[in-house]
Design a protein that fits this description.
The complex is a heterodimer of chains A (544) and B (183).
Chain A: H1 7-10, H2 40-45, H3 67-81, H4 83-91, H5 103-108, H6 115-130, H7 132-137, H8 148-158, H9 166-170, H10 177-190, H11 196-208, H12 216-234, E1 249-252, H13 256-259, H14 263-277, E2 281-282, H15 294-297, H16 299-315, E3 320-323, H17 328-341, E4 367-369, H18 370-379, E5 395-397, H19 402-406, H20 411-420, H21 453-459, H22 461-474, E6 478-481, H23 484-497, E7 502-505, H24 506-513, H25 535-543
Parallel strand pairs in A: 1-2, 1-3, 3-4, 5-6, 6-7
Chain B: H1 2-16, H2 18-30, H3 35-43, H4 51-67, H5 76-90, H6 94-111, H7 113-116, H8 122-161, H9 163-168, H10 172-175
The chains are: A mainly alpha (544), B mainly alpha (183).
């Protein structure tokens, strides 16, 4: 008769090397660690192949009959199309420099989340079918057959990568795990394996114009509401022109900024800033989504969803485009958009109408990030601010992977922060957790779903751990960021790990601090929280 | 008062062995990870580059200090939470998540092996083991709090996703009871 396990047996304490190699350890689909399979309706809406109802927990994923040929053909096509992929497959010497740099490895302790091994999940199949040594020697040459278990393993681990590229910073060859992850996800999609959260957002964006599926009327209603909120709190009317032809600037934001909290307060900050400058801008109900979940699942879908931004800039006859605080939107617009659609000869090289600064870095794609725009305004002394209105905030700054590591925006947000916060209210997290070495929020790249909370909290642990340090050491109570996905997911992460710290966009802080000549007395910030010195009045009001 | 003298002697003995006990306990907790991971958890000393080891170490040290009466008992829930907030999402089941507390029992029993058969220590040993059981029971409370917290933050995120819309509809306040910041 079998005996009940001891605690040590239960957690499988084992000081020996494992009896099986990584290739023989099947991936276990653990609830809380994966995003649900995409519902067929989303796939049908965007003409994705093999729509069907299936569950990740099922043994049979109902793959099409010729799934293996399709995946291998897809790999061959991509090897020809992307020289980078072939290079990344061949060049890795498994030095291990990336091994302990992934936030998912640091949070889960699962070796298959070491980037070197995550890449090996794909590379081993490449060796087996595309390299002579692998064809002849099999496992001895690090090659393995493509089986349905391998497909499941790809699904499990490629969706435990947030395309943040921290590993690439440490790779001596600069191997880009993010590119491999996207291409791996494309191969999965070619046989009908997609995640619901990303596909729902993509399909709704394709169909209605925003990830959340809001209609143009709902968009207009929301931006008007946020303008009214500005007026209620500051006494300043901050109209938001929509679809106005001939405006100088098209302003594009992720939908999280006008539907979700705390992004909505950042949006209020945008409108206050533009009103202060009397900026000649318009928003668009067609280009109402700057975010691009399509890019998380394939290059083709990224391109399809991105088309509307230039289209709308052309239709509205603007001169250039200004982007709100968003991370992946920024990476797509900088790194992909001009390649997809260029040359962009119907727009002009962006010039700030207030300072005359030419944004030469935006010469090709004609789009400027709001942090670049605002930092330039401060640099030229164009904004009058009262930093004391942010005195209730002790801030640290999270470099969002895409804007910082991806695009090199390190100084601009910090420059703005130092203008709008009282002296001594900004504290950096430790150097190995910020700037190009920043830790990801753990929920990006389309995995910020509700059913995979466990893995999201673990992927975000390294970030939260550094936030906790500055909270305990300096009393930091806010984490600033310039990314809408961060504003959506970091509050959740911190409510689990460091609940004393809230999330804020940087333009929200600008909105708090901007001083208008004809404003009403400001007693609260944009979130209706009492400013320093007005706490008592707020309590009395509450008691009445 | 011979009994009290024995008790003090036993506690002193454990205090002398505290560092060994902590090392063994930490080693065993680390050993439940994959071998490649164990090497990393042991070797990387930077707390920001190795958050699991930092979090576990902080919690295990705190728990042991309370257990050995070096720190106030009121602090126990916080220390348990340091470990369990991690284990509650890293491990697939409550039994795996809380096994680390029971490992301490075995370690202490082994460390006290010479005294274990001495009848003079019987009462104190029994009391010690009871307190270890109490510790484990408190662990269940913390585990449940953490799993509930995970669900709370999930609901809170769903509301935030359309937070501005809810405020637009005048439904902000009653819908926005955020999970409290109390730990």
């Amino acid at each position: 008769m079998a005996k009940l396990p001891t605690p040590a047996e239960l957690i499988q304490i084992n000081y020996q090397m494992p009896s099986k190699g990584w290739m023989d350890l099947k991936a276990e689909m653990r609830p809380g660690y994966y995003v649900n399979a995409a519902a067929p309706k989303w796939m049908q809406m965007i003409d994705y192949p093999f729509p069907r109802a299936w569950n990740v927990a099922d043994e049979d994923w109902q793959l099409p009959e010729d799934w293996k040929e399709r995946v291998l053909q897809g790999m061959e096509d991509r090897l020809q199309r992307f020289r980078s992929l072939k290079l990344f497959f061949d060049i890795c010497v498994r030095c291990g420099a990336c091994a302990d740099k992934c936030h998912f490895f640091l949070g889960t302790g699962d070796p298959k989340n070491m980037p070197v091994l995550r890449a090996e999940l794909l590379r081993s199949v490449y060796r087996r079918y595309f390299k002579t040594a692998g064809k002849l020697l099999g496992e001895l040459a690090g090659a393995r057959d493509l089986t349905d278990d391998v497909i499941k393993e790809w699904f499990y681990y490629l969706y435990q990568c947030t395309i943040c590229r921290r590993c690439s910073v440490f790779c001596p060859y600069g191997i880009d795990m993010a590119e491999m992850t996207i291409l791996g996800r494309e191969l999965l999609a070619s046989v009908g394996i997609n995640i619901d959260w990303a596909l729902a957002s993509v399909a709704q964006c394709y169909d209605k114009g925003s990830h959340i599926g809001a209609t143009p009327q709902a968009f207009k209603d929301m931006v008007d509401f946020l303008a009214e909120e500005n007026e209620r709190i500051t006494g300043i009317t901050t109209p938001c022109p929509v679809n106005r032809k001939g405006a100088e600037i098209l302003f594009v934001v992720p939908s999280g900024d006008y539907f979700a909290d705390p992004g909505s307060y950042t949006f209020m900050g945008y409108l206050l800033l533009f009103k202060y400058l009397d900026l000649d801008f318009t928003m668009s109900t067609y280009a109402a989504e700057g975010g691009n979940f399509g890019w998380f699942i394939s290059h083709e879908m990224g391109k399809r969803l991105n088309a509307k931004i230039y289209e709308e800039a052309k239709r509205l006859k603007v001169k250039w485009i200004l982007g709100g605080e968003c991370g992946h939107m920024w990476r797509v617009c900088n790194q992909y958009m001009p390649t997809w659609w260029g040359p962009i000869d119907f727009l002009e090289e962006p010039v700030s109408p207030i300072t005359g600064t030419k944004f030469e870095n935006a010469k090709v794609h004609k789009m400027v990030h709001i942090s670049e725009f605002t930092a330039d305004l401060f640099k030229h002394g164009k904004l009058k601010v009262d930093p004391q209105r942010n005195a209730h905030i002790k801030l640290t700054f999270h470099d969002s992977c895409n804007t910082s590591r991806g695009m090199g925006i390190f100084e601009e947000p910090r420059y703005i922060i130092n203008q709008v916060l009282p002296e001594g209210h900004f504290f950096e997290m430790p150097p190995n957790t910020i700037r190009e070495k920043t830790f990801c929020c753990g929920s990006s790249s389309g995995i910020n779903a509700n059913e995979n909370m466990d893995i999201r909290m673990l992927g975000g642990l390294p970030r939260a751990n550094a936030v906790k340090y500055v909270h305990e050491k300096y009393g930091v109570n806010h984490l600033g960021c310039i990314c809408a996905l961060d504003r959506a997911t970091l509050p959740t992460l911190l409510q689990y790990w460091v609940p004393e710290v809230e999330i804020t966009g940087i333009t929200e802080l600008v909105g708090n601090a901007l001083v208008f000549d004809d404003e009403i007395e400001r007693t609260t910030d944009l979130r209706d929280r009492p400013l320093a010195g007005f706490e008592e009045a707020d309590e009395e009001e509450g008691a009445e | 008062m011979p009994e009290k003298n024995v008790a003090m002697a036993l506690n002193d003995l454990l205090l002398q062995k505290k560092s060994d006990i902590l090392d063994r306990w930490r080693d065993q907790v680390f050993a439940s990870y994959a071998p490649e991971t164990v090497r990393f958890l042991r070797s990387q000393k930077d707390r920001f580059a190795n958050p699991i080891a930092y979090q576990l170490n902080r919690g295990l040290t705190g728990i042991l200090e309370v257990f050995l009466e070096e720190a106030e008992a009121e602090q126990i829930m916080g220390h348990l939470d340091e470990v369990i907030r991690l284990k509650a999402i890293q491990e697939a089941s409550p039994s795996r998540a809380l096994a680390f507390l029971f490992l301490l029992k075995t370690i202490i029993r082994e460390e006290l092996a010479p005294q274990a058969n001495d009848p003079a220590f019987a009462a104190e040993l029994s009391e010690l083991e009871s307190r270890l059981d109490g510790l484990a029971l408190l662990g269940f409370d913390v585990f449940m709090q953490r799993r509930e917290r995970l669900h709370e933050v999930r609901v809170s995120e769903i509301k935030r996703k359309v937070g501005a819309l809810l405020r637009r509809l005048g439904m902000g306040d009653e819908f926005f009871e955020e999970p409290s910041g109390e730990e």
